[in-house]
Design brief:
Length: 192
């Protein structure tokens, strides 16, 4: 009985992942690729236009949302914090371009979501030294405000922050990354 149950669950998972395959709805657009190369947040929007996975998937829920939010709050951070945010943003876009997701004929939205989470984790780990230098004081408070409440409880976010915190000297635990209570100093500024 247990074997049949596991087989049933496996088939459901496979079927779920397959059901989120989206064909490209538009041709490859060099302007969109240029947005990615220029680290412009519009890259995520035009990616979504080509592969409309929807607002619950990675391109809009994470990529576009946090790219634009980061751009609007960049001035809240000191030089180290700004450099960290820019490095992670650039790393993320570079990896998405290198892995050629945009140029595929179809994408599996669920697999793209998992790839986005993995790439984001990799980008934080590649920038762990900068993270350790930047993630303190006002930067810590503003970084905390940058992330939505629900996303702070996401296991992949917790795993990423915990992993990168372990690279610091002294090591940072998740509790060390909570704000000091002055998040009202972190405002979103309009971009031009």
């Amino acid at each position: 009985m247990t074997m049949y149950f596991m087989l049933f669950i496996s088939l459901c998972i496979i079927r779920f992942c397959e059901s989120h395959i989206v064909q490209a709805t538009q041709p490859i657009n060099q302007t969109c690729l240029n947005f990615g190369s220029d680290y412009d947040c519009q890259f995520y929007s035009c990616f979504e236009e080509r592969f409309p996975c929807g607002s619950k998937y990675w391109m809009l829920k994470w990529g576009h949302k946090y790219c634009t939010r980061t751009q609007k709050s960049l001035l809240n951070f000191d030089k180290n914090g700004q450099k960290l945010l820019q490095q992670i943003s650039n790393c993320l876009t570079n990896k998405l371009l290198k892995q050629r997701y945009y140029t595929l004929n179809k994408v599996n939205c669920e697999q793209l979501r998992l790839a986005g989470q993995r790439i984001l984790h990799e980008c934080y780990m590649l920038n762990s030294k900068l993270f350790c230098n930047a993630f303190q004081g006002k930067n810590r408070d503003c970084f905390f405000q940058l992330i939505d409440d629900d996303d702070r409880r996401d296991l992949t976010v917790i795993r990423t922050l915990t992993s990168v915190g372990q690279k610091c000297t002294p090591k940072k635990k998740l509790a060390d990354m909570r704000p000091s209570g002055k998040i009202n100093q972190c405002v979103l500024t309009p971009t031009l």
